[in-house]
Here is the input.
Amino acid sequence: MSRIISGAAGGTPLQPVPGSLTRPTTDRVKEALFSRLDAFDVISGARVLDLYAGSGSLGVESGSRGAHTVDLVESDAKASAVCQRNADLINGVLGRKAVTVHRSKVEPFLERAAPAAVWDLVFLDPPYPLEEVALAAVLEKLAAHLAPAAVVVVERSSRSPEPAWPGGLTRFAEKKYGETRLWFAEPFVPDAIDAEVLDAEGADADGVDPDNVEAHGNGR
Here is the structure.
C-alpha cells in the first residue's frame, strides 16, 4: 500500500484505487522524485496541480510537505472518490482545506481555468496508452498556466519517446527508474537566454571562451 513519505502526515497509508484502473507511482520512484523536488526548493508554499491524479498520491505528498494549495484532477468516478478520501485525510492533518479534488478530464479542466490561474509545480502521470499527440495538446494548454519558475514533471513508460514540448516549455532533466521515466520541464524564458547570449558574447570579446558559459534557464 502506498503511503505519504514525509512531512506533516509522513508515514500515513493512502487509500488505493481498486482494481487495475490506474498505475500508481511506486514509493521508490516517489521518494526519488520528491528528493529532487526538495533540492529544487519548489514545494514549500507552492500551488500544485496533479493531473491524471489517480489516488492523488503525488498531490497529497506535496500537501504534506508544505504546499500551499493542491488541485487533484481525475475523471474516473472510483479514482476521484479515492482522491477525495486521501484529500480529506491530509486536510484533516493540516487543519485546513489545502487539497481540492476536481472530477474532470484534464483538457476541459485546463480550458476552464481562469487566465490568472497559475501553478508552481505540476505533475502529469497519464495512462501509458495516451497518445503522444494528446499529451502534447495537454502540455500546450498547461504552458499558459505556469508561474515563471514552475517545474513540470511528466511520468511515462521508459519505452515512450520524450514528450513533444510546446513553445512555452523546455526540458531540463530526465531520469529513468526501471520501467518508469520522469521528464522535468520548466517555462521557456527567451529574454533570459538572450541576456546570457549577450553576456557570453561580451565574455568572448574579453578573451573568455563562450563555450564554457552554461545556460540554465531558471538555474536548475
About this structure: Residues 79 and 112 are 21 Å apart (CA to CA).
